[in-house]
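Exercise 7. Given the encoded structure of a 161-residue chain, write a plausible sequence.
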């Protein structure tokens, strides 16, 4: 979802009788949103750069979502990422670990995946999978430092422009 610069509706119409599920990943540099229908179809993807804080970024995403969609149709919401504590507990959103969220989402689209490399703003994560999520999997991450992270790579690419 990081490549999305603005809201992208993948399904133009939202049937009123359908239930939807909201997922939000709050990273160190961006907040990503996904909306999935009850059939497992990705309906919307959106991202917002964190500039004034993660809560403001989440609020901007939810506001944009509400412009083309009835928020009352969302029956469950989940959050993951390093900033997941930005979501108030009273909202009762489910909290998920980043590795589980990444693996589940990727396996939904690519069920035969064996290795996942995720480069975030502050860390890089490698997940080794065997037999989908049914067997224990291996997770390796770098210590928090600049080298090998998305923000570092973004800075170097900017220098090359």
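Solution.
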């Amino acid at each position: 979802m990081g490549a999305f610069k603005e809201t992208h509706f993948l399904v133009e119409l939202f049937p009123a009788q359908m239930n939807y599920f909201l997922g939000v990943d709050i990273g160190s540099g961006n907040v990503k949103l996904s909306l999935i229908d009850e059939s497992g179809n990705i309906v919307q993807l959106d991202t917002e750069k964190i500039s004034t804080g993660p809560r403001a970024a989440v609020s901007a995403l939810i506001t944009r979502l509400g412009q083309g969609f009835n928020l009352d149709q969302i029956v469950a919401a989940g959050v993951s990422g390093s900033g997941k504590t930005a979501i108030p507990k009273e909202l009762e959103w489910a909290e998920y670990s980043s590795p589980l969220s990444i693996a589940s989402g990727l396996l939904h689209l690519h069920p035969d995946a064996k290795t996942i490399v995720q480069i975030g703003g502050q860390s890089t994560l490698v997940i080794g999978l065997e037999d989908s999520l049914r067997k224990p999997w291996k997770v390796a991450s770098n210590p928090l430092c600049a080298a090998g992270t998305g923000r570092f790579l973004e800075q170097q690419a900017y220098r090359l422009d």
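Remark. The chain has two domains: 1-96, 97-161. Students should compare their own answers with the one above.
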